[in-house]
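Section 3.1: Structural characterization of target chains.
Under the original work plan, the team committed to producing a structural model for every single-chain target entering the pipeline before any wet-lab resources were allocated. The record below documents one such target. The sequence was received from the expression subgroup and is listed exactly as submitted; it comprises 377 residues.
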Amino acid sequence: MLYYLLYQVLQRYFSPLNVFRYITVRTVYASLTGMFLAFVFGPWLIRKLRELQIGQFTREEGPEAHQKKAGTPTMGGVLIVLSTLVPTLLWADLTNGFVLLAVFALLAFATIGFVDDYAKVAKQRNLGLTSRKKFSLQILVSFIIGTGLLALATRSAYSTELVFPFLKRVHPDLVIHSLLSSAHLWPLAFIPFLIFVSIVIAGSSNAVNLTDGLDGLAIGCTVIAAGALTILTYVSSNYRWATYLEIGYIPRVGELTVFCGALVGASLGFLWYNAHPAEVFMGDVGSLSLGGTLGFIAVVIKQEILLFFVGGIFVIEALSVILQVGSFKLRGKRIFRMAPIHHHFELIGWSESKVIVRFWIIALIFALFALTTLKLR
């Protein structure tokens, strides 16, 4: 909205407003706007959540120190979503298909999380939607996003090829083009791509959800991951940088950088209130939307494989749960004292703040490594 007003309309009469044509400028403003909105409306939202008695229900089998957190306002992820959405609407080009899909991904996953959180509040316990229902909804949203990307691919705005770090010439296409000429089998040509996109996006959404167990842990790691994806998105849309680094050049994806900037700013603003000891929790409305959005961005800029490093902590948290469940079912024994793994370190004596900060450090190391792979290609 502001982008259209300042650049498309008023710039004709006042040439200095031409500065808003640059993505970097609008990304900075989107980030600052998101942070400002989170700072300003955070106290109001926390107060409203308390008045509505929307509090957190803790796991009975969790660390004993967590029991005192029961009743802390939850569903604060609404603040993250709105503080990301508003700057995007203000500073991004809303005619860009990637931006519209990003907004859809943010709102769709936030809706799933909201329904889950509301069910927990209604039932007065730490159980909302069943895992099957939640995952089915995540897959459905991911399929819709994948279909939208296929529509953009038909206009040559997006590539369905898979990019591997360190392997410059290995770009397998996830669409089976030999089936496209068949009158009856052509829909099957897109199934591998849709399945892959769904696994990445839904998997990312669940991984962030599993990480959200300590004050500021998930949102701090999100700030780091989103910051790295902001850089990756910008270089993917810049011909000079993309050519120099030998990565896929996707010109229209540049507007998504503004969205990423808004996400970073909103997350930093929320961290102000979610830092230990937390005044508010993000709930599933926050963690599912953040994870789904990070996965979507990685898919769009063709860095799905690199997402394993950009969101390294999220991957470790998800793997710890998979290994714990698998080991218990197969051997009847647990690998960790408790999963996700951040609870394991609490139970062996680390303080909550120490776990959080050390995980942030590891997340930063992963993100920096992911960025160095650009030149190593």
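The mean pLDDT is 89.
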